[in-house]
Input
Amino acid sequence: MRGVYVSTGAFTSNDLVDLLRQADELGYRHLELSSGVAFRKDLRDVIEAHRDRFEFMVHNYFPPPEPPFVLNLASTDPAVRERSIEHCRSAMLLAADLGSTVYSVHGGFMVQPQVSDLGNPFSLAGAAPRDQGLALFRDSVQRLLSLAPGIGVRLLIENNVLAPFNAPDGRNAALLMVEAAEMADFARSLDSPWFGYLIDTGHLKVSARTLGFDADDFLQEVSPWIAGFHVSENDGTADTNHPFDEHAWFLPWLGRLRDRFVVIEAYRLTPGQLHLCWNAVQQARTA
Output
């Protein structure tokens, strides 16, 4: 997959029928089905009714589960980890059914957050040691990779965002898949053509500022495994999914890695804002 997609989060509605209508009217027919879409019992029927008009990708917490939970492929709670694996397996099968060749999901957490904790400071009490978290995460990923060749869907892991409020003393004790060295080592340990990374530029900007590393150095180190990008802008202190223009810091990388797909993941955009983002991405990829 090498095209430019728009996240369902970019539209002003969280109802799938309504946002598909908006996307169709605006002429955007390559969509990433992502978290934030409201649960409805007929979600699969809605997708089926529109599959001839749109090209879909499936991301992370889609279809939205009911009741909601925190998807964590590194959870030390066996029930949470199994539910997370099953959700991802179902999402990979949905991706295959829709003709998509990738499914992407966030890296694991060493903490055990609740739904209400997302976007807020995590409690580090009971955080798993990093080695244990990585072992659990690797096992989950390997189980999902065993499904990948048979259905033709590549598994992509998205880099996590480490905000300052989750990094006391400038340390990362909460999240996996934040720094380049760990991600490169993890990819090498799997050594699978069915594995890759989805790099979220908003996550990367915040994490780089929090931990004091260089975002361009990060991208250079993990570039062999990058399959695609989530693109949005922020001020470096929080992942706010703001729109961007032709001056965005990450655009040169979209030109260097122009054979990777790109998803515009700025949220709740006006038609003009979305058009500006779209044009910036297209210009970067053809420069």
In short: The first helix runs from residue 16 to 26. The CA atoms of residues 71 and 83 lie 8 Å apart. The longest strand covers residues 195-200. The mean pLDDT is 96.
